[in-house]
Amino acid sequence: MNKMFCYQCQETAKNTGCTIAGVCGKKPDVANMQDLLIYITKGLADILIRLRNEGRKIESEINHEISLNLFTTITNANFDIDSIQKRILNTIKLKDRLLIELKNKDGLSDAAIYSEIERDKLLEKSKSIGVLSTQDEDIRSLRELTIYGLKGLAAYTKHANMLLKDDEEIDIFIQKALVKTMDDKIGLEELIELVLETGAYGVKGMALLDEANTKSYGNPEITKVNIGVRNNPGILISGHDLKDMEMLLKQTEGKGVHIYTHSEMLPANYYPAFKKYDHFVGNYGNAWWQQKDEFESFKGPILMTTNCIVPPKSSYKDRLFTTGAAAYPGCKYIPGDIGEEKDFSEIIELAKKCEPPTEIEKGNIIGGFAHNQVFQLADKIVEAVKSGAIKKFVVMGGCDGRNNSRNYYSDFASSLPKDTVILTAGCAKYRYNKLNLGDIDGIPRVLDAGQCNDSYSLALIALKLKDIFELEDINELPIIYNIAWYEQKAVIVLLALLSLGIKDIHLGPSLPAFLSSNIIKVLVENFGIAPIKSVEEDINLFFPENRNSDIITGETLIGDLLKKDPTKAEILYSTGMGCLGCPASQLESIEEACMVHGVNVDNLLEELNA
Questions:
Q1: What single DSSP character describes residue 589?
Q2: I need a labelling partner for 226 at 20 to 30 A (CA). Which of 40, 61, 95, 309 fits?
Q3: How far apart are CA 603 and CA 605, in angstroms?
């Protein structure tokens, strides 16, 4: 029997699901309690929808509870079972209070009326209400796709809430969608519509956060970010929450402590409001998954404002602080609700006693190409496109991760034709933002819009180009989408792109385990979703005009291969393909032949190209 079941992230075990412990470091009891928190949150949503139908006004603080609960269960955010149980008990208490106000309780879901509070009984309940409690694989796939999209959406709206921005329409949608994932009367067609609607609200959620960030801190601007170190002790801040960044900068002014960003907090360097702080000195390190080495060498305290936490080494665990939805057992948690000033004094005092960071690299990286900045460059970019200096754009947003297969993205970026510009957002950029890819007529070949939520900027840029070139369909633009995903914020970005009508998105390094084969087929047929292949194959696919005719791909026909090099027949025979002389076989592609004969196409292509 499974101790747990979780398949919400790209690194899930064997690309099927973590059943013993999470690859992320999540223990079974934590995973199961997170499932229970989602279950209880669905119950609260059920009650809220009914109260609204009875004319009850729902306070924003209650809507925020839903968002925070969803955010708490996002990958690599919260590993602390005590804090998760506290959220469960708070939600049950709120739910029970609101139930008293509800006039018509007929047909309420089990999740709405569940009110157990003892940990042992909570843990027992958690084992029966998880992902696998939905028996039908396709229904389960669409329900989970919706829920993971809602988790990403909730993360973005929570950051907006911290800046006192709300959109009740988004909150109501999140709550209605949660309830629909419990409704056994809803079939595949309606669930597919729900998935796309989730994407549409993802666009609204990212727009809300964009407005909150830019009104608070100004529009991001082109910035050279220092990646070296100074001589003072430092505090390293990671995650996505810019309000936490602001509070930390204010509280450290004049304290002799330097502030560095890490991973997804890098784009804080692009906002004008933060540049006025002389002790804000740059970015330290790379993507989230390298934090074990980089947090150790940093020497000073680290503040995790959101995900992504990697279970810390003992060498720096006492220097790791968390806040917001993030928590890790044994690490100090800094409390503070929306509108409250958090107290970072303990972090600051610790920093003063620490050594300065150990330098791990030198130089600068350039970013700040959010939509407002790119619109200012629109004439220059359009002229470069019209002149042929820029032939294509490649959107390479999304997440980074630990798998060696992600080296694909560095190799892909390096292999792109010199007349191609990369548009990026999220920590996926760490695979190529320090490569020397040069520029085109002064336009850098890597345009970093910012955090993963700034994929909204990439969508706005595409829509702006569509208008400028007077195109009917956004898919007519010379833009390729090659997205790396890892967790649920990337899921909502993907759904947002689909809701905008963008097709032929390539997704990697693997397709999500939570997509059943039938749902993958729907996505392929309706939206052209496709997995990445090898760098050579994808470069040839995206840039057929630059195709290297010597490269053998899965699309190469058997007949064409043997006509060009008959000696390859020996390799094909060795795999069991004994009918090469048959005219029908010669019309098959290598990929089709491999499917027929049960041969691993990647291994065969590697041997043929060798």
A1: B
A2: 309
A3: 6
Average pLDDT in the 270-291 region? 98
Distances from the Cα of 400 to the Cα of 147, 410, 430, angstroms: 22, 11, 7
HEC secondary structure over 292-332: HHHHHHHCCCEEECCCCCCCCCCCCHHHEEEECCCECCCCE
- Closest by alpha carbon to 165, among 93, 228, 243? 243
Which class for 402: exposed (0-12), middle (13-18), buried (19 or more C-beta within 10 A)?
middle
Q: Is residue 238 within 8 Å of residue 291, measured between CB atoms?
A: yes
**Mind listing the pLDDT tens digit for each residue in 75-84?**
999 999 999 9
Who's near 220: CB < 8 A, 6+ residues apart? 214, 267, 270, 271, 367, 368, 369, 370, 372, 373, 449, 450
Q: Hey, is 426 helix, strand or coil?
A: coil
C-alpha 352/C-alpha 258 separation (Å) is 10
Q: Is the pLDDT of residue 551 over 80?
A: no
**Residues 351 and 234 sit within 8 Å (Cβ to Cβ):** yes
**DSSP-assigned letter for residue 340:** P
Res 6 pLDDT > 70? yes
Residue type, 141: S
Sign of the C-alpha dihedral computed for residues 166, 168, 174 and 175 taken in this order: positive
Q: Tell me, what amino acid is at 185?
A: K
Residues whose CB is less than 8 angstroms from the CB of residue 242 and which lie 6 or more positions away in sequence, other chains included: 159, 163, 213, 216, 217, 268, 271
Q: 139 to each of 110, 135, 234, 515, 599, how far by Cα in Å? A: 19, 8, 49, 10, 31
* pLDDT tens digit sequence for 356-383: 999 999 999 999 999 999 999 999 999 9
Query: Model confidence over 183-196: pLDDT tens digits?
Result: 999 999 999 999 99
